TrEMBL record:
Residues 23-50, 82-123 form a coiled coil. This is Sigma-70 family RNA polymerase sigma factor. It comes from the Bacteria. Keywords: Coiled coil. The keyword Coiled coil applies.
């Protein structure tokens, strides 16, 4: 049994059994980001921004300045505040896109295993659930005790299951 293959398939099995929590977490993050985007849009729509007060310190030096800028300090600060909100919204939209891509990847990897689980025997299913699904994670020796089999039989069964699962899934570079 190639150790690289064993590690990769075991990683996929752990991910497969934890996908429910992973998907739930990703969907919660997306929901929170969408709520924040809605709040940002409301702030922009209602002009709900805070403008810092212009410094009114008295200066006694002679200062002559000609300016062709016809916007007031308040208008410039208001535009800056709205632009900050718009940048924050764009960042959050990009993050939602990343999370949705991650969600698709998790579901794709799980589907490779899920659509072939019916091929395993009842004993094999029980073995992988004990080893990879339930917490705390059990060692192969502990699984062998649970299933009343010898330690060597448990390792042989694990290798057989890993090889069978490996034949179902696409592992790049393995």
């Amino acid at each position: 049994m190639n150790k690289e293959i064993l590690k990769e398939v075991e990683k996929r099995l752990y991910s497969y059994f934890e996908r429910e929590y992973t998907v739930k977490g990703i969907k919660l993050k997306i929901s929170k980001l969408e709520e924040q985007i809605t709040q940002i849009e409301e702030d922009i729509k209602n002009n709900n921004v805070i403008i810092e007060e212009e410094s009114r310190a008295v200066t006694y030096g002679e200062k002559v300045q000609t300016s062709l800028n016809y916007t007031s300090y308040a208008e410039r600060e208001f535009v800056k505040a709205i632009e900050r909100l718009e940048r924050e919204k764009v960042f959050k939209l990009a993050r939602i896109g990343e999370l949705k891509a991650e969600l698709r990847k998790v579901e794709e990897e799980a589907s490779e295993i899920e659509c072939n689980m019916h091929r395993l025997s009842k004993l094999d299913l029980e073995f992988i659930e004990l080893k990879y699904k339930f917490k705390p994670k059990l060692s192969v020796e502990e699984v062998s005790n649970e299933l009343n089999m010898s330690r060597s039989s448990a390792y042989i069964r694990r290798d057989k299951i890993i090889n069978e699962i490996y034949s179902w899934i696409c592992i790049p570079g393995a």
